[in-house]
C-alpha cells in the first residue's frame, strides 16, 4: 500500500512539473501596458513593478532594457518590440521551469517594468530582484526615486 501511494505521489509530481514546463504561453494575457500611478516601486502578491522617469530618448532606453533582459539567463522575448514601445519577456526558473513574465513599456516619458508570476501566489522576491538588477544597468537612462 505504501509503495502504491509513493508511486501515485511521484506520478502527480511529474505531471505538475511537465504541466509547468510545457503549458502554452497566452501572450495576450501578459503583453499589456502595466498600469502606474507615478514613479516608484510597487510590490504585489507574486509580482513587482518599478516606474522611472526617463532621462534618455525612449528608443534608447527600450533598446538598453531589451539588451539587459536578453542577457538574463533563461529569458526570451515573447512579444513586442522597441518600435512598438513595449516588450514582454518570459524568464523561467532553473530547476522547475516556473515562468515569470516581465513587461517593459515606455509612455509619456516614463519607463515601466512589471514582473509577475504565472503559477502560485508568491514569487519569493525573484521578480523584484530581477527588475532591480535590470534597473541598475538602466540607471544612466532613468531618474532615480
Automatic annotation (TrEMBL):
InterPro entries: DUF1499
One Pfam family here: DUF1499
Alphabetic keyword roster: Membrane, Transmembrane, Transmembrane helix
Transmembrane segments: 6-22
Name of the protein: Uncharacterized protein DUF1499
Amino acid at each position: 500500500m505504501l509503495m502504491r501511494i509513493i508511486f501515485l505521489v511521484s506520478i502527480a509530481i511529474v505531471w505538475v512539473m511537465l504541466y509547468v514546463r510545457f503549458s502554452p504561453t497566452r501572450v495576450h494575457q501578459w503583453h499589456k501596458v502595466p498600469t502606474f500611478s507615478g514613479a516608484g516601486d510597487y510590490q504585489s502578491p507574486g509580482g513587482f513593478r518599478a516606474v522611472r522617469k526617463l532621462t534618455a530618448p525612449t528608443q534608447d532606453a527600450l533598446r538598453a532594457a531589451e539588451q539587459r533582459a536578453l542577457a538574463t539567463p533563461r529569458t526570451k522575448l515573447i512579444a513586442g518590440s522597441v518600435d512598438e514601445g513595449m516588450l514582454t519577456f518570459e524568464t523561467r526558473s532553473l530547476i522547475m521551469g516556473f515562468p515569470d513574465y516581465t513587461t517593459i513599456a515606455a509612455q509619456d516619458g516614463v519607463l515601466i517594468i512589471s514582473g509577475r508570476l504565472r503559477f502560485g501566489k508568491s514569487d519569493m522576491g525573484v521578480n523584484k530582484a530581477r527588475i532591480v538588477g535590470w534597473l541598475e544597468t538602466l540607471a544612466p537612462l532613468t531618474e532615480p526615486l
